[in-house]
Amino acid sequence: MINDLCLGTEIISNQSGTGGVLPGELYSKAIATSIRPNGNIREQQKAVASWLDLGFTVCSVNLSQDIPRMRMLFPKVKFYEGKQGKSGKGHIVDILTCLYQLKAPISAIASPYTYLFGSIDETDLRTELLKSIIYVKVKKLEGITASISDGEYTNSVIFLNQEAIGLCPVIDLCLEHSWWYLWILLVFLPKGYSLKVLHSLAAYEVAGNERLVKAEVLEQGKRVAVHIPPSFDLNEDLLPRYHQLLWKVAEKNTCAIKNSSQV
Length: 263
Fold this sequence. Notes:
Blueprint: E1 29-33, H1 41-53, E2 57-62, H2 67-73, E3 78-81, H3 92-102, E4 106-109, E5 114-118, H4 122-128, E6 132-140, E7 153-160, H5 162-167, H6 180-187, E8 194-197, E9 201-205, H7 214-227, H8 239-252, E10 254-256
Parallel strand pairs: 1-2, 1-4, 2-3, 6-8, 6-9, 8-10
Antiparallel strand pairs: 4-7, 5-9, 6-7
């Protein structure tokens, strides 16, 4: 199912950096996102606070014109100027490049509306990340409408180490749509990586006030389909089916982390 195009030579380690990274700083674990300036600021502030409570260094990739205001609203977040996405929706290449520059041995990507609760054993997690991609399923809270999936889980928080980030192929996807995490999970299978699910963290996503543009969702799904082709012609009506199909492939190739107790 996964095309050899996934193994292309254009990878994150070849990308030029995002603006704002300070050399010489050391981070044990970092989480990257793209805070939405026109979204529900209060809910995003509470989500980010849950990451800070777990000891993460938090960084957000945004357009340069949005950063001054965002710094005032999120004083503990490190902001970096995106180079790829001109729409301000958090291009996944910018986010991965930011994490690659931060060089934290435990790196994560999450939607700005995702709350995290639980605990992380950093020593164990570093070991588990060797040749593995780890994820936490994000459970939607009642009333959320921002997912194209019909399932209980609408998203994922992805954990990678520096080696995996550097090897991740470049693709034109943004954080606002729910294709990026499936892309990251599945693109590493041909590279010999395993997928693992972490149960010591619980993740919940609340609804933002943004509306998804169906044409954009379809276009991003088609970009993934170039590399992970379905057995049918992809259109708007079949988009949820394709999304669920990718989820099933990821889950089929997933094992639980040892000693990872359920929150």
